[in-house]
Design a protein that fits this description.
alpha+beta, 2 helices, 70 residues, globular, 2 strands
């Protein structure tokens, strides 16, 4: 039996562009300078409205956030 702990977070933001379904085949690798950076939570890059947008790895992001808060 493995116990899994879930945390809920609330973040104050100025704007949300929305939620998107991203096809796995459209995810491109992040540049090495980003992917290998200490504390990076970037899972890859996707194109959105002509821009490259970072796709966050939700688990790594939550771990970094929890570590920063304590």
């Amino acid at each position: 039996f493995r116990r899994v702990l879930f945390r809920s977070w609330a973040l104050l933001v100025d704007e949300i562009a929305g939620l998107r379904v991203v096809e796995e085949t459209s995810i491109r690798p992040a540049p090495a300078t980003v992917a290998l950076a200490s504390g990076s939570a970037t899972a890859g890059l996707v194109e959105w409205k002509g821009h490259r947008v970072a796709l966050l790895d939700e688990r790594r992001f939550a771990d970094r956030l929890a570590g920063a808060i304590g």
